[in-house]
Amino acid sequence: MNTTPRSNRLHIAFFGQTNAGKSSLINALTGQDIALVSDIKGTTTDPVYKAMEILPIGPVVLIDTAGLNDDTRLGILRQKKTIDVLEKTDVALLVFDANQTPHQVDVDLISAIKKRNIPCIGILNKIDDMPESNATSEQALKDYATQFDIPFVATSARTKQGIDSIKDILIKHSPQDIHEHKLVGDLIQPGDFVVLVTPVDSAAPKGRVILPQQQTVRDIIDHDAMAIVTKETEFAETLRKLGTKPALVITDSQAFEQVSAETPLDIPLTSFSILFARHKGDLNSLIQGASTIDRLQDGDKVLIAEGCTHHRQADDIGTVKIPRWLRQSTGKDLIFEHTAGVGFKDNLDGYKLVIHCGGCMLNHKAMNHRITSSLEENVPIVNYGVLIAYIHGILDRALDPFAQAKMIWDESK
Fold this sequence. Notes:
Layout: E1 10-16, H1 22-30, E2 48-54, E3 58-64, H2 73-84, E4 91-97, H3 104-115, E5 120-125, H4 133-148, E6 152-154, H5 163-173, E7 193-197, H6 211-222, E8 226-230, H7 235-242, E9 248-251, H8 256-262, E10 269-271, H9 272-280, H10 283-290, E11 301-306, H11 317-330, E12 335-340, E13 351-356, H12 364-376, E14 381-383, H13 384-391, H14 395-398, H15 403-412
Parallel strand pairs: 1-3, 1-4, 4-5, 5-6, 7-8, 7-9, 9-10, 11-12, 11-13, 13-14
Antiparallel strand pairs: 2-3
Helix pairs in contact: 10-15
């Protein structure tokens, strides 16, 4: 649990007015001094992320956000960062100070949460400060639940009253399919051999393989199959020495062309990036995005987006290789812009295509938000693996393991 990647954890975000007690509740819920607590309003300025395990919920990311009722110039910027957190939130906890009246920002936030179909739980905090606490808090709970139409619990971060109730209601209202998005297990059977082709180049982390490769190996093992890991330079020899036909070959997208040429046609082949397109997002939408590449024209703007930041190498995949391949493939003079990290473009007006990385550092919620945002603005979106397979002429083959996606691709051509 302690080494579960952040992107695979349930994201629980705490929202509310300044000094409602969000940080104190996080500390009380975890039994640790994770969040900075102060009587000074606005102590929490930027969203704070903490990966941990809360029994019996499991591996989670707790997100402490800035107060929403700070209308100063700086406060408005903080509010935007707080609202951006919604795009990766699996469960929202809206904290109210039991001794203050609700604010319009609370109403607006609940509306935004419901619009995104995020489970929302209200927390009436600081009930130990209320006069005639027990009777008053019961009535207040009923009033708040009626007003906002969400479940509520009464708590005191200071006395720890109601903390167990938060855990109970989280278990009840958390999404149950958070860990059920398919990676590779449904494509193989117990006892199968799966060959993973993992190039080791200058951008590879020292002493380890990258996260998508780690997670794929683990998923193969979890499904009682066998993972054989090799570099692209040893791939052909690996197949010869294996002595039996593998059930599946999975390659890094950058070695797709070579691996496709060396893999017999009766062996299914795909890429890590295509697997993660399905695991994290919507493979069907991404392959439809690939069908628009040939319609690009001179001067069209293309956004290349990545979900993390990393040191750029001389032949970086996002800033160098993909622009080069796309210009060569289309023969068009395209304009490329780049974005990286937790943020995503608020306005995609003017872009003709979004090309996104595999999203290994994003949770399912965040990746789907980016796909949905693009499609809502009528901008096609494709990911690295799908795009690379397409421009190298092997997308048809790479989609063979995915019957529905292959059918959609055949219809879109």
